[in-house]
Amino acid sequence: MAVRRSFKFLLRPTRRQEIALMACLDDHRQLYNGALEHRRTAYHKAGVSVRYGDQSGELKYIRAGDEGGQGRWSFSSQQATLRRLDRAFAAFFARVKAGRAPGFPRFRGRGRFDTVTWPKDGDGCRWDSQPERASATFVRLQGIGHVRVHRHRTVKGRVKTVSVKREGVRWFVIVSCEDVPAEPLPATGAVTGVDVGIASLVTTSQGEHVANPRHLAASADHLAAAQRAVARAMRGSRRRGKVVARVGALHAKARRQRLDGVHKAALALVRAYDVIVHEDLRITNMTRSAAGTLDAPGRNVAAKSSLNRSILDAGWGMFLTILSHKAESAGRKLIAVDPANTSRTCARCGHCAQANRVSQAVFACTACGHTAHADVNAAANILRAGLALREAAEAA
């Protein structure tokens, strides 16, 4: 079995290449904003909906009229930027159709556009562009040159797309590969249910707990000091740029620590269990603001904001995404179940009541008297629901 995987590596550009990367990113941002303005103006002035095909057809004239700017870069990468805008509009219309808050596509400032994609290896870019140099790896990017890559692991499969991303003061290359061979693990015969939480990131139905490190909370004091320095600095000053970079570096460190932790937690589960059952969580809905509107203000806004921050700091979505990728590659079975009432139902007798959940950590059934750790009880319910789904699917 083959799967699709992405590999992310640190770039080590020279000063000249870094300037060229910044120019490439800025020109693609201007192309995105110009295409957005084109769509807005055409609809407001003439009632005409402009599509991706229309804007892609005009791209050659834009490049011809700006040879020293837009004409420097790969045609395919600029098409990918226009497709990115098209996907933003498609998502906007999908939200409108679903009756959700629309969120019209916005213009991108310098700090809100950080990725350029080349959709085909060999078309404006070339991964491992100097194979004769066995001691180092390079990626060639049109208009930028051969940029050195800190390749810390082997790239497997066939390279499909290449993306360059700016994160603070660092640059990364992301290589998306197809036909990556799966790496199935030997069967263990074990199954488990998994409950994700804030006190413990992961709790299994066997009673195992994986601690939640709370990386963002751990750096809260340093982050607050850096943000106060940003507030005191004059806009446009050199000092403000430095302290803004400091804030970004602290967030980036917390993000890297969180990613490392969820990788390790997911890998441990995949190695230990053949079948893993988890809740099908809608994290975007769970972390939606409770502020409400001026006419209908929300309640307990501060408490909900704190809960949202804790959920996002734990990285539930990141964990479940990585778990699915690792399970697919290892040949494990992953089952998602409806999370409704899993924390209120007794795993022994099936009685469901809000009063069963005595506290965050304690479960005590009001019907049969069964007591357990609340997260372990929920994980047992999740496992039972997942096994029932599997049996129903096998019987169908």
Automatic annotation (TrEMBL):
Superkingdom as given in the UniProt entry: Bacteria
Alphabetic keyword roster: DNA recombination, DNA-binding, Metal-binding, Transposition, Zinc
Domain named Cas12f1-like TNB: residues: 316-382
PANTHER family xrefs: RNA-GUIDED DNA ENDONUCLEASE INSQ-RELATED, TRANSPOSASE
NCBIfam families: guided_TnpB, IS200/IS605 family accessory protein TnpB-like domain
Residue intervals of the Probable transposase IS891/IS1136/IS1341 domain: 181-289
InterPro entries reported for this sequence: Cas12f1-like_TNB, RNA-guided_DNA_endo/Transpos, Transposase, Transposase_put_HTH
The family this protein is said to belong to: In the C-terminal section; belongs to the transposase 35 family. In the N-terminal section; belongs to the transposase 2 family.
The protein's name in its UniProt record: Transposase
Keyword Metal-binding assigned: yes
Pfam families, A to Z: Cas12f1-like_TNB (PF07282), HTH_OrfB_IS605 (PF12323), OrfB_IS605 (PF01385)
Taxonomic lineage: Bacteria, Bacillati, Actinomycetota, Actinomycetes, Streptosporangiales
Statement: the UniProt record of this protein carries the keyword Mitochondrion: no
Positions of the Transposase putative helix-turn-helix domain: 1-45
